[in-house]
Amino acid sequence: MIEVLSVFIGGFFGAASRYVLQIIFNRLLPAVSIPISILLINLIGSFGLGMALPQKESWALSLQVFLTIGFLGAFTTFSTFSMETLELIRKHRYIDSLIYISVSVLGCIGTFLSGYLIMV
């Protein structure tokens, strides 16, 4: 039961952090042709998960699920990425959608790997 509570609390903080960062990024960063705030949030979250993965076996299960499933699971967002991609396609911005998909997928894998390699 403590693990379920840990996921719940981690999810609360992850979702709230994503919301606040999205507001900050939208205010501070110049407008570009792709949805940059969610891209950056997903890159940060992928890097964090990459850093957490090699360490998590040494953590209590409640901390593992708090950080990986709860916080980082709620912090990153594939559904928003999907919605924003379809919005670009709907507006016939095909090149922008391909750039967004490519940078998101390759960037998230790259930042995950970077975080992982730092910690091993």
From TrEMBL:
Keyword Cell membrane appears in the UniProt entry: yes
Positions annotated to bind Na(+): 73, 76
GO biological process: cellular detoxification of fluoride
Notes on activation and inhibition: Na(+) is not transported, but it plays an essential structural role and its presence is essential for fluoride channel function.
InterPro entries named among the record's database cross-references: FluC
Keywords: Cell membrane, Ion channel, Ion transport, Membrane, Metal-binding, Sodium, Transmembrane, Transmembrane helix, Transport
Pfam family, one: CRCB
Subcellular locations according to the entry: Cell membrane
GO molecular function: fluoride channel activity; metal ion binding
Principal location listed in the UniProt entry: membrane
Topology of the protein relative to the lipid bilayer: Multi-pass membrane protein
Swiss-Prot/TrEMBL catalytic activity: fluoride(in) = fluoride(out)
Top-rank taxon, per record: Bacteria
Segments passing through the bilayer: 6-25, 32-53, 59-78, 98-119
Biological role: Fluoride-specific ion channel. Important for reducing fluoride concentration in the cell, thus reducing its toxicity.
Family: Belongs to the fluoride channel Fluc/FEX (TC 1.A.43) family.
PANTHER family: FLUORIDE EXPORT PROTEIN 1-RELATED
Record's protein name: Fluoride-specific ion channel FluC
Gene that this polypeptide is encoded by: crcB
